[in-house]
Recover the amino acids of this structure.
């Protein structure tokens, strides 16, 4: 089965700093989703990447998919306290009995100090 | 109003009790999912349903059962709750036919504590 490893597991930054979160897959990525979660709350969909080399941006958050490296990165520019939370990546399983299901990474906890 | 709702939002129960968590959605999606979240483990899939007549086990279905009462409703039951089922439970929905991305949209979660 597919496994996702997120790094770092936690990150503390000062407001205004840039940061990157990585998500590495044990298998080829056919679809990669990024979600944000406020502590104890539901997951909010950020963006989805499907093609190698694809890059998407939403406000100050940019995600890229490196298909060859089986990796996706999430970059936040000029971080703000509102960016704090848990970021999770989810990979779409493409084959076998897991077809159509998502496997999630363990999450990266982001703290932004004002 | 929220597109995916879960009830209750918080529940404390005792070992051995039967518990039902409910999920309703107004998104018109055919696919629905139940996950649990534990610290450091991400989300793990318990059960999923691709339409009203389709129910499938996820990676951690032991000790759980589900019922898909209608397209909009998907319930998760713990027949005899045990302490290691203490977790945050999420319901999600998706539609593979709109946009082609099958993005899952999550409810606000139910925090369950089993004493």
């Amino acid at each position: 089965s597919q496994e996702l490893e997120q790094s770092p597991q936690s990150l503390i930054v000062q407001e205004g700093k840039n940061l990157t979160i990585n998500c590495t897959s044990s298998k080829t990525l056919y679809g990669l989703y990024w979600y944000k979660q406020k502590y104890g709350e539901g997951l909010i969909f950020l963006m989805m990447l499907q093609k190698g080399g694809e890059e998407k941006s939403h406000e100050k958050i940019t995600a890229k998919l490196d298909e060859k490296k089986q990796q996706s990165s999430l970059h936040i520019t000029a971080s703000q306290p509102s960016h704090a939370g848990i970021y999770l990546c989810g990979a779409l399983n493409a084959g076998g009995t897991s077809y159509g299901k998502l496997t999630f990474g363990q999450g990266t906890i982001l703290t932004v100090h004002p | 109003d929220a597109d995916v709702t879960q009830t209750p939002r918080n529940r404390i129960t005792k070992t051995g009790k039967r518990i039902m968590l409910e999920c309703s959605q107004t998104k018109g999606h055919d696919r629905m999912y139940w996950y649990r979240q534990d610290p450091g483990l991400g989300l793990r899939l318990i059960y999923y349903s691709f339409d009203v007549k389709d129910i499938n086990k996820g990676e951690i279905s032991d000790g759980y059962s589900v019922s898909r009462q209608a397209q909009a409703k998907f319930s998760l039951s713990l027949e005899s709750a045990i302490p290691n089922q203490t977790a945050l439970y999420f319901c999600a929905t998706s539609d593979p036919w709109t946009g082609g991305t099958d993005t899952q949209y999550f409810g606000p979660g139910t925090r369950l504590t089993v004493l």
Remarks:
- The CA atoms of residues 102 and 109 of chain A lie 20 Å apart.
